[in-house]
């Protein structure tokens, strides 16, 4: 059983020495236990937070413990009456090839055409996009919605739901290829490259009526460009701030806090942070029903980036925080 453990806590961007690959004997399932074989491992930005021991909404991964993560697994061996060999389950086994379970925290996936989609569009990132946009963003037809990390699983889904609701959708993404994808495959009205020197003026031109909803995934320079464009009564679901996850210092430049507070006050802006499972876990069925229909009906396009092999997890994870991924990052740990 190969597994990646947290070897040390990163200072700034994670480096190879923060992770250690270990080999352990295969665990034996006891009575009422199942041995799960990881087929797909999800890599997500929140894992950077778990590597750090700063106070957060979830406890950190301990040094020497397996890196956490959502997984799609198959039952390899079962001593549990409710599970049989070969069953597909959604699990939370982390960065390892095998894990034991008592069955309690598993979700059976049944017959599924795309098992890995339960880690993306039909799972946590899709749910995040759906609730953050619909419940906090409150989109109305004709409004302008801006979302960054526009080709990732959250941003791509936010923008496409925005189109279903009749919004003008402007994406922000890193590089021309991702921007083209957002417009041509995802149906966004425009997408601006945040690495362009004149990013702020391009964003302004793409939002001639201002911004009614800014779905916050990244923070940093993108937020600086968004702030002056927000309309009166704009909504800002604060979902993630990935541009700062590796930061060790406050950003350079003048203190923008008075500008932010003044804008919130004068324009009566509503900003709300949320943590998907803590705040919306009770509404998962509503999401599954509606998203299931949209995906089946071809209304939502979904792109995955598949990386082969558990040994690639640290490098792939580091790359995702810098935008080297193109689509939802999943590791194929084993063939099914
Ligand atoms: P993505 O696959 O979109 O990966 C992160 C992306 O962020 C990168 O690909 C990159 O895209 C972009 N990015 C990185 N650095 C910067 C930067 N400096 N400026 C602008 N963009 C940057 O991730 P997800 O879709 O899984 O997650 C999106 C956000 O949602 C994250 O902030 C995540 O933490 C958050 N999240 C929050 C949840 C909650 O419950 N609140 C639950 C799930 C996710 P590009 O190359 O296009 O710039």
Automatic annotation (TrEMBL):
Cited InterPro entries: ADH-like_C (IPR013149), ADH_N_2 (IPR041694), ER (IPR020843), GroES-like_sf (IPR011032), MDR_fam (IPR045010), NAD(P)-bd_dom_sf (IPR036291)
Record carries keyword Oxidoreductase: yes
Keyword Oxidoreductase: yes
Pfam families per record: ADH_N_2, ADH_zinc_N
Keywords: Oxidoreductase
Family annotation (Gene3D superfamilies): Medium-chain alcohol dehydrogenases, catalytic domain (3.90.180.10), NAD(P)-binding Rossmann-like Domain (3.40.50.720)
Residues in the signal sequence: none
Top-rank taxon, per record: Bacteria
Uppermost EC category: oxidoreductase
PANTHER family the UniProt entry points to: PROSTAGLANDIN REDUCTASE, PROSTAGLANDIN REDUCTASE 1
Protein name in UniProt: NADP-dependent oxidoreductase
Species: Pseudenterobacter timonensis
UniProt lineage: Bacteria, Pseudomonadati, Pseudomonadota, Gammaproteobacteria, Enterobacterales
């Amino acid at each position: 059983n190969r597994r990646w453990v947290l070897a040390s806590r990163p200072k700034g961007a994670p480096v190879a020495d923060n992770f250690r690959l270990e080999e352990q004997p295969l665990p034996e399932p006891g009575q009422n236990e199942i041995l799960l074989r990881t087929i797909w491992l999800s890599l997500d930005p929140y894992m950077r937070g778990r590597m750090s021991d700063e106070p957060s909404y979830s406890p950190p991964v301990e040094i020497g413990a397996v890196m956490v993560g959502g997984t799609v697994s198959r039952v390899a061996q079962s001593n549990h009456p409710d599970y049989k060999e070969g069953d597909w389950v959604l699990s939370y086994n982390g960065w390892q090839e095998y894990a034991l379970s008592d069955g309690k925290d598993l979700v059976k996936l049944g017959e599924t055409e795309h098992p890995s989609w339960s880690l993306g569009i039909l799972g946590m990132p899709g749910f995040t996009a759906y609730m953050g946009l619909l419940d906090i963003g409150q989109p109305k037809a004709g409004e302008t919605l801006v979302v960054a990390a526009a080709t990732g699983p959250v941003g791509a889904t936010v923008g496409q739901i925005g189109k279903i609701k009749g919004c003008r959708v402007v994406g922000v993404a890193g590089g021309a290829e991702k921007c083209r994808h957002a417009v041509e495959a995802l149906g966004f009205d425009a997408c601006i490259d945040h690495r362009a020197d004149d990013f702020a003026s391009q964003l302004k031109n793409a939002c001639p009526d201002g911004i009614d909803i800014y779905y916050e995934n990244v923070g940093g320079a993108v937020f600086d460009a968004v702030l002056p464009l927000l309309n009166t009564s704009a909504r800002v679901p604060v979902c993630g701030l990935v541009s700062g996850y590796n930061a060790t210092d406050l950003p350079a430049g003048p203190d923008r806090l008075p500008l932010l507070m003044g804008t919130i006050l004068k324009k009566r802006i509503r900003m709300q942070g949320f943590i998907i499972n803590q705040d919306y876990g009770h509404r998962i069925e509503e999401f599954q029903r509606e998203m299931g229909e949209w995906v089946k009906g071809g209304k939502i396009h979904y792109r995955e980036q598949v990386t082969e092999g558990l040994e690639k997890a640290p490098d792939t994870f580091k790359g995702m925080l810098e935008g080297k991924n193109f689509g939802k990052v999943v590791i194929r740990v084993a063939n099914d």
